Amino acid sequence: MTGRAASQDSVTRTLTVVATGPLTTVQDGGRPGQGAMGVGRSGACDRAAARLANRLVGNDPDAAVLEVTLGGLVLRAGADLVLATTGARCSVAHNAPVPLRADRELRLGLPPSGLRTYVAVRGGITVEPVLGSRSTDLLSGLGPPVLAPGDVLPVGEPTAPMPGVDLAPVPDPPGGELTVRVLPGPRADWFPSRATAAFTATAWEVTGESNRIGLRLAGAALERSRTGELASEGMVRGALQVPPSGQPVLFLADAPVTGGYPVIGYVADADVDRCGQLRPGQTLRFRGALS
Amino acid sequence: MRVLPAGSTALLVELDGLDEVLGLYAALVAEPVDGVVDVVPAARTVLLVTDPAVTTPAAVEQAVRRTTPRSGRRGGGELVELPVVYDGADLGDVAGHLGVEPGDVVRRHTGTEWTVAFCGFAPGFGYLTPDGEPWQVPRRDSPRTKVPPGSVALAGEFSGVYPRESPGGWQLIGRTEVAVFDVARDPAALLRPGVRVRFVDAT
Fold it and tell me: Keyword annotations for this protein (chain B) (predicted)?
């Protein structure tokens, strides 16, 4: 009888998507190491938040979670499950493991600050991996489709004990202005010193054309001291690329593998997660020297 | 070799040209540097991405400077044959640009061995460079919004095969039924850096 009960339980270890909000995707640690094939890393935009969510429910830190953009996700449990939300706080117990009974719903409201909420479930989301990852890459189209109402997500079996942590004391993503550390990029010398000075003196506005690929920033137009074309070259998240408009793009998780515009600087990798929580209208400042 | 900064987790090595890129890339694949999680060749650069828990860009720079590039980019890699039906919409334009007949374009495209120099633009899109005489073909004045998958194309000094339907500005000379990118296959990309390619006329 026990075996039968366990197998019934395992077939109902699911989360049904009732509503998705503006955008919800499955994300994990991404696809590192495949850049030479033209495959980008992808994965959670705020890696630290996704890893914390997994640790709170006793998962591998890079297990697949849901990345919810501006709240609005409603999930129904197919069995008794344990969930945790991290990142942007959405009116439910946050940064803490929470049981969700079978047939009950988790409803995420609109976060007061921050953009992306991570929902981990004990056992992980076990949709079919593509090239070793369950991440949806919105640039290349690899990975599972963007979530839609009615989707039924399989949930894995727990692999490790619960961590015995009630609450992780981490600050919420801030509203308003954010300052991050910047380092020189490979093509900082394509810009005159007045452009690199303007870069760190400007409060850049995050525009509405921002997404998982990158933040499009608006502020001072950065002029170049060199004209001519740059042969495309490899880059990673955190790259600050300056297209001919002079308005930089800060690349995030779904950055292209290569780019053909000069990269003036790089946001320090540990700070890129915080940039992934910025909403349109917030401002971003860079601290550091570009030469 | 010029080593350029690329943030706290990567560095960008700039070289004189494609042959030097292929030589260094081949050496870095044959003898991986500790803590390097990705090596991305491009037209004149090789990006090395590190695992910050294992190493630093400065340590990787030292290791790269000690690396001896493989000499001779040709001959080492696996050889792939791609049957091509040469009925591309731009075959006549390419022939006109080169001042030859369409049949001459096909003979030249099939008559040389190509090497994948690097990938980019889309997963599995390889930039192929010829062993023989270099090509120089302009891009189309106006890019197509939809290029069918399997399209065999030319632009600049490169040839390529579109892995899936996408927009594109390259000149289409033919098509192949071979899937150059398939996530169910390992490796998914047929045309990886260093792989040699021979196009076979299947018209």
Answer: ATP-binding, Hydrolase, Nucleotide-binding
